[in-house]
Design goal:
Blueprint (H helix, E strand, L loop, with lengths): L1 H4 L2 H4 L10 H4 L12 H8 L9 H4 L7 H9 L3 H9 L5 H7 L11 H5 L6 H15 L14 E5 L3 H12 L3 E6 L7 H4 L8 H13 L3 E4 L9 H7 L2 E4 L5 E2 L12 E3 H13 L4 H4 L9 E5 L3 H12 L4 E5 L11 H10 L2 E3 L2 E7 L6 E12 L5 E5 L5 E4 L2 E4 L3 E2 L3 H4 L27 E3 L2 H4 L4 H32 L1
Parallel strand pairs: 1-2, 1-4, 2-3, 4-16, 6-14, 7-8, 7-14, 8-9
Antiparallel strand pairs: 5-15, 10-11, 11-12, 11-13
Helix pairs in contact: 4-6, 4-10, 6-7, 7-10, 8-10, 11-21, 15-17, 17-18
Amino acid sequence: MANDSMLKFVGRDQAYPAKRAAETRAEDFREIAERYAPPAAEDQAGRCSQCGVPYCSVHCPLHNHIPDWLRLTAEGRLREAYELSNATSTMPEICGRICPQDRLCEGNCVIEFSGHGAVTIGSVEKFITDTAWEEGWVEPLVPGPPRGQSVAVIGAGPAGLTAAEYLRVSGYEVHVYDRHDRAGGLLTYGIPGFKLEKPVVMRRVERLKAGGIVFHEGFAVGQDATLEELRRRHDAVLIATGVYKARNVDVDGSGANGVIAALDYLTASNRKSFGDTVEAFENGSMNAEGKNVVVIGGGDTAMDCVRTAIRQGAKSVKCLYRRDRANMPGSQREVANAEEEGAEFVWLSAPLGFEGGETVTGVRAAKMRLGAPDASGRRAPEAEPGADHLLEADMVIKALGFDAEDLPSLFGTAELGVSRWGTVLVDGRTLMTSLDGVFAAGDIVRGASLVVWAIRDGRDVAKAMHQWLKARAKTGVRERQAA
């Protein structure tokens, strides 16, 4: 019987929650997939073989207890499943929505290797925690006994919010400083609602506020206060700003009207979804309606831009990428969703220049081929001579990734140590920067990465800061006693 219970995946097909019809979902910014009904979620969770070495957990940056909460879900013990899922992640329902499971847990599922299709881990994770919110199982953040020490967190993205939560639970007074008018970072302004509806993020933020974490929104470090001023105001500081500087396309015409950065475009769209007045959207500069749109890039941000343009009513949407489908960095699921919704992918193409002078009218592109592997191990693209072509474009969106801003200059702290890429340098053991009591975590340390890694980094740095602050408090007690 035990063996039979571990082989349910043989006779039970893989089934994700149904996606809304492409023509329907392309008209709004709601999430594209419906939720499981409880029997279906339990049925899919029961496909887990409970294998001896859970590669799904191994390949999850948070090392979530995936087989255990799948088993509890299959048994209908949803509250216990939620509590176990929540034990290792501050945002399980967000990870369930936006993690590239096909490259992490599900892509390394033993059942996937056997040819029967992975357990639908992300969809079950989302189901568990959404159910917990509806049933009132998500408990308030309860601060630990006050320690008399305060912490500043710069950046209200996933790394900063995760660290803030753990530090508050440990009893610290926590202040979060963010230059945007809403917390959440890229979760709020960089990821479209069709992947992550904004109330899902806002309820997490409200829980942190209700737990006594103080948010200073619209606060730009370097303008409203220098880093040094925050160091004097708090016992420790965490830099968790993420990386926001858009990589440029170094070709003729890149400064033309209509050539815009991906994050500016996505932020304008998300602000519009919040009901804000967005001048750049109203005047058409950040609105794709009726335009021929070309998105340059092959990552998840490019997919977000492509699918947003479709929903804004673009005349045509093309994605230009210099490698082929097999070598693109973005999620294959996102590519499939975009194609279903009407996007066209122009593989093995790279921009040579933007036509039109003051205002863009087209993209001149080179046909590429894949040559020898580059430093990353992927085959390097190289231009085919004499194979240029022209794509009509009224709007070009640059989605080539992000680099770190010049934080030493931005924060007015020249002595902050950074790498040649601008990322903040930290000690590998203490996670402290070159400045005493100043820590850093998330993308500003590792470079542009996944939300789940930012959560992991926030968890790790909170632990390191707790150890340092405890030692500092003991030293202060000894000094006072000696005095």
